[in-house]
Amino acid sequence: MGGRKKKAKVCDKVSVEDRISQLPDSLIAEILCYLSTKDAVRTSVLSTRWRNLWQSVPELDLHPCAFSDVNCFVSFAERFFDPQREFWIRKLQLRMYKSLDDKSSINRWIDAVSRRRIKYLKLSFDFFDGPDKILPLSIFTCQTLVQLYLFMASLVNAEVVSLPCLKIIDLEEIIYPNEAILEKLISGPPLLEDLRLIGSSTNNAKVLQVRSKTLKRIEIDQFRVVIDAPLLQILRTNIYSTKEFEIINLGFFAKLEIDVVYGHGMTFSTSLIHGILTDISRVKDLVLINGGKLCKEIFLYSKSGPVLQFCNLSHLKAEFCKSDLEKLPTLLESCPKLESLILEVVKDVSTRGNKKPKVMFSKVPQCLVSSLKLVELKRSTSGYEGEIELVRYFLKNSTILKKLKLNVYYTRKGMCAFLKEVNAMPRCSTACEVLVL
């Protein structure tokens, strides 16, 4: 009896084709941009085809910590930024944590890239004094630079500033000989749109004149500035015991973001409150961090005279701690045309949570009757007694409210009870939709 013959198994050999290596060098270089610089260099061991491809990558992120020692880092940078080598680099991030033995190295590297069509330059120096923190003059005349970020760098007194493509300037804890060089750097670029100035607590600078016909967005912290920017749309700032900015152009700007840094025992002067209220009265969109503290000062200020009406304000995003919620009516009564309110309740820092917030308004603000269409309540702290009353108040008194968003957290059992109570609440606006996120 003949046995069954086993059918021979035929395996088709499918050759694995290396399609990536067939791509043009320029396209491979763009793909390598999605890797860290360290991993991009590692691709050189893949094959002879890949040995030098990483050198064409137009984006470079250099940090000494990625190398075995500083000498290896310097050797790598010297080869890459060799002025005799033809290369194009679009983006360079260079982070230094200590001064180098050769003080001129960093300047040579920056000088090399500033002459090679660089668009994005980010330099960070995590150490204090050192001549290698002083930037070369070529950086002030780079014809292709679009974004400049400097951290703890030292500026020189450049006679000529020519940056025709620069749109973004980000300066943090920089060292400069005088205000004139900063003012020249800010007013010179004809396309500048974004400016970020972050000083330090030891910054003893005089008043900085910020003049630009194109500037749209400004963020300042611990810098004293006078702003003359007719196209200004957004201003972000921290306010301590003094107001460090002044806006001299008379036009309205769209958005103001204020973080009220309120230390223990700190009070605001009447002139400071008046200045803040004047600025708020000019905007359509307002973001208040620690808004309750500011409202407390507004309440004290209002006792000495009428509070300004924020007739231009349409959108308000405010952060209140629980114990300051009782000041919310003071703010809403000054916003007769408010259309949207985003209220975030955060944890009390200065109290132990023993104080229960009072959320009952003495009267219904005008905006609830005539303009308020969207309310969003956020809570990044544990539930508290009074939240349900706050929800009830908006549903009961908001005549044209279209949407109430509740971004809150409860246990499953607590959420069921919360939803049941919310659904049973009477609504002044029949078109109001309640969303629990």
Automatic annotation (TrEMBL):
Pfam families: F-box, FBD, LRR_At5g56370. Residues 17-53 form the F-box domain. This is F-box/FBD/LRR-repeat protein. It comes from Cardamine amara subsp. amara.
